[in-house]
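Following up on my earlier thread - several people asked me to post the actual chain instead of describing it. Fair enough. Here it is, all 670 residues.
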Amino acid sequence: MNKFLCSFFVLISSYLYSQSDTTHVQAHIDAQLTWYGNYDAIAPFPIGDTSFEKILMDFTMGCADGGCSHWDYTVSVYLMHPTGVLDSNIIVLDTLSLEPLDVDTTWNVYEVTEKFELGRMITPYGNYMDWNQPSDPNDLYDENWEHSYVFDLTDFAPLLTDSALIRVHYDGWSSGFSATVNFDFIEGIPPRKVLSVENIDPVGKYTYLSLSDDQNFQPITKLFNEDVQGVAVKSYVSGHGHEGPQSCCEWVSKQHSISINGDDIYQWDVWKDCGMIPIYPQGGTWPFDRAGWCPGTEVDLQVSELTEFIDLDSEVELDYSVQAYTDNGEQAGTFIVSNTLFTYGNINFENDVEIVDIVKPTNKDNWTRMNPICGNPMVKIRNRGSKFLTSATIEYGIEGGTLSSYEWNGALDFLESTSIELPVPNWSGVAEDSKFIATVILEDDQYLNNNSLTTDFDIPDVLPGTFVFEFRTQTNNGSTNRASQSSFYINDINGNLVFEHTSSLQPYTWYKDTIYLPFGCYELVFEDSAEDGVNEYWYNGESSSAAGKVQIRNMNGDIIKKFPDDFGQQIDYRFTVEYPLRIESKGIATFDLYPNPARDFLSVNLSLSSPQDVSFILYNYLGDELKRLDICNFTVGTESFNTQSLSSGMYFIKVITPTQEFFDKFIILD
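Reply from S.P.:
Thanks for posting it. Predicted structure:
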């Protein structure tokens, strides 16, 4: 038995801390996207037979040196892959004589390249990124603003080798943004070997009419070779233009499909909810939903896994199509479309679970809306094995501290993923350089390099136990009572409602709620049912005086938190009351605890300058009050708590007098 346990812990250690070698490749470095066109760079990709578990592209967008554009423009990243075919064009044509005709021609001979789309995004409205007006609640940025977009390019592995031309295409007509493009090649074993990569049709912008009438994208016929065991199509589709009564194709949802032998296998609506995107505030109409994109986000990627629908031994017809248009002018709208066909060998593992991401806590750009936290973490896992994944264990917490464990049960097929909200962990011991770690454990897991992730994270604000939450509603917009669109409530760490503003709201009126909260962790939510914040409709000619305001004051009347009015769907603000998640003792030298660490008892020494009524309160790491001693006319002395019934971990002592408070942490050992 002891021998078995020893082997088990060696195995756990190996995948908790195993790290694959990673090759970093940089293409563009702060490329200035200041006018419509192509921005090219050579990327020296790895050469050889090295297998890569994952290939990631990080596109970091910032403001151009001259400032950010205030418009939403399309940015695409292409691999310009050589085809081996030569072509030519005339550079110089000189006529030496007419009689007889004698022409001297200079030719440019070049190799034809094929364009593969690696990723597509839309720039944000840069209204607030390049100015400095601290009085504006929406001015949350500075000249160093940037945002990271990460694309998984693992299936492009056969093409990402040797020196390659990477093209960033900027669809804008004004300055501008900057682009830094990096690639990470993480050595290891992918879910399955990629055998081929090809475009079904040329990447480009097409009118709705030409797509719907099959003028451009004709069906293709494929007969796969005997090595092919899997087939998938990955599609980037985004709608643009303002044609017809519904402003097609940016502002209307249309259904697109991938078919096999005339049967629609995958159908999806090209439409994206924009109210909670990570880049905000922006100005402009960014919160309004659009066709497959939002200002400041990646274009949605549609993955159509076709393996189970194809007879790999027979010829098949593949086709991409879009629903029929109405002849009302909308057919002049456009879609930017790329459809890439991938073929694969066998799945490499029967049992393999991967932790894909830590959604919270983290300081990654994509999850700013959900962070920072003091409550429930969230991780994303994926099944990379051929067998159904029905259960796994997740261990998580502060790296180097006491980890929590959660048993997940569900059903994930090959390459399916799910996000899991975890119970509140032990937040004890958070330091300035702490990292959060999450590890997924599967019995008989055949590949252990992808089981663990760590991330940096920030801690939430600390608020006093009593504060004032105040907001001013918007003016009416025509006949629309925008005040009625707002609501406000606070939940505790367990999701229980602890405060809600229930009175009806009138236009352009201040509402001030005094909030009383005990020591703990909370989430404040301010919602707008129209999902467009409480800012003015400047695009309809409204002045800034029509906007609402949302802020927090302390009991002295000072504003301690000001929220942007251009927040979209809702404000999610997580905070702690009276204690920081990152523990720093506060108080004076005459306040101390012993023994620390403790086992059976804890003594609190306190010396005051005059007799006062004192409360000694013991909390667990969740902020739950466990024990309390209220002493009248206390000056100097020691009070003790029996801690024999407490489990091991971190706890807090808070001492409250009419004039001051003291706070410290202590540890209980087994």
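The chain has four domains: 19-247+270-300, 350-456, 461-577, 591-668. That should answer part of your original question.
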